[in-house]
Amino acid sequence: MILIVDDKIENITALRKILHSHDLAVDTALSGEEALKKVLKNDYQLIILDVQMPGMDGFEVAEAISGISKTSELPIIFLSAVNVSKAFITKGYASGGHDYLVKPVDPDILVLKIRTFIKLQEQANELARIQQELRSEIEQRKDLEEKKDQFIGMVSHEVKTPLTSVKAYVQLAEAALHDNKTARAFQFINKANNQVDKLNHMMTALLDVAKIESGMLDFNLSDFNFNDLLEDALDIFKKSHPDRRVVRSGDADVTIRGDMIRLEQVLLNYLSNAAKYSPSHKEIRLDIRLANNEIEVQVTDEGIGITAEEQTNLFKKFYRTKQSMAEYRGMGMGLYLCAEIISFHSGRYGAKSQLGKGSTFYFILPFTGQQLTTGTPKCNEK
């Protein structure tokens, strides 16, 4: 839309007729003060401004418009029949005008100039938009590069530690065998195997994250009793954490349709985290609740706890709390994988915690009358 500013209604009427005949939308103002109010309130493509007006003259209006950030680049064409000297024309450009036309003006020339300035302004706006997008993209790429470097450093550190341990245990086993201490050698070999298992777990998690990103994470669906999943998960956990005691309450004698191995992976992650972040407490609670065709599984520890601010980010990829980064090893992939698995099964997940007072991690799944959401991940029915 074009704003015509002139204190004489007959001039406005003539200009409006010309612009309307060329399908150009028009708004009008009879004074500089009214023009400023309209410029602040509305968006215009161009202003045609009379120079000699009572109150604020055209130059003052142009300077005011140019001084407003919203309208600083708005094209202004001065139109005058009186002030036609070089000094006035120069002042027009200096006050923020883009052109200075002297009446009588050829209508075709006027419309041509209007269309040219509008097109230039649109191109300038588009260029500014592209520049902003490029700046944003550059910042995003910088951020991604920083995160990638941090991740590579973290993975290198996490992989190097068990590899170093494996090498040390193998050397100790060799020395024990050399001294005919077979039993001692087997102890070192078992410890080396534990470190290899940790490496395998890390590599599996990394591959799962990559599969999620590419939409290739497999889910093998079947009907199973949730108690069977609990028993299997607890058996695996007790073997890997013989010094921990899991106190279980509630029953889960319901049929679930889902990927038993993936859901077992979620529960094992919850239990392992509970053990990891509560080193001075031997007991972990596992509570099962059934209500409204849903099963809720809660794992509670009495460990270090998590601040309220950090709880909102727990299930994000590679996120780790400040305290966990300072005191515990890990790559921040476990809970992210849990969230993806539970979401696939049309479930919900979350955590409740107080710093220094332990944490409760939970997930909720439908067990009857609901369909699974089969989106991007691959799904195999049994």
Task: Describe what you observe in this structure.
- With 382 residues, this protein is α/β, with parallel strands linked by helices.
- Helix content is 52%, strand content 19%.
- The chain has three domains: 2-105, Rossmann fold (3-Layer(aba) Sandwich), CATH 3.40.50; 147-213, Signal transduction histidine kinase, dimerisation/phosphotransfer (DHp) domain (Helix Hairpins, Orthogonal Bundle), CATH 1.10.287.130; 215-381, Heat Shock Protein 90, CATH 3.30.565.10.
- Its EC number is 2.7.13.3.
- The modification 4-aspartylphosphate is found at residue 50.
Give me a quick take on this structure.
By secondary structure, this protein is an alpha/beta fold.
Q: How are the elements arranged and paired?
A:
Blueprint: E1 2-5, H1 9-21, E2 26-29, H2 32-41, E3 46-50, H3 58-66, E4 76-80, H4 86-94, E5 99-102, H5 107-178, H6 182-214, E6 218-225, H7 226-240, E7 245-249, E8 255-258, H8 260-276, E9 283-291, E10 294-300, H9 308-311, H10 322-327, H11 334-344, E11 348-353, E12 359-366, E13 378-381
Parallel strand pairs: 1-2, 1-3, 3-4, 4-5, 6-13, 7-9
Antiparallel strand pairs: 6-8, 9-10, 10-12, 11-12
Helix pairs in contact: 2-3, 5-6, 6-11, 7-8, 8-11
Please report which band the strand proportion falls in: under 5%, 5-15%, 15-25%, 25-35%, 35-45% or over 45%. 15-25%
CATH architecture type of the largest domain:
2-Layer Sandwich
Fourth-tier CATH superfamily name of the largest domain: Histidine kinase-like ATPase, C-terminal domain
Distance between the termini: 64 Å
Number of helices: 11
The overall number of domains is 3
Number of strands: 13
Compressed to H and E, one letter per element, the order equals EHEHEHEHEHHEHEEHEEHHHEEE
**Which bin fits the share of residues in helices?**
40-55%
Structural class: alpha/beta
Q: What kind of sheet is the major sheet? A: 5 strands, parallel
- The average pLDDT score comes to 85
Q: Which CATH class of the largest domain?
A: Alpha Beta
Q: What are the low-pLDDT stretches, counting only 5+ consecutive residues below 50?
A: 369-376
The CATH topology label of the largest domain is Heat Shock Protein 90
Globally, the shape reads: elongated
Task: Evaluate the radius of gyration.
Answer: 36 Å
Strand order of the largest sheet: 2-1-3-4-5
Protein name: histidine kinase
Enzyme class: transferase
EC number: 2.7.13.3
Keywords: Coiled coil, Kinase, Phosphoprotein, Transferase
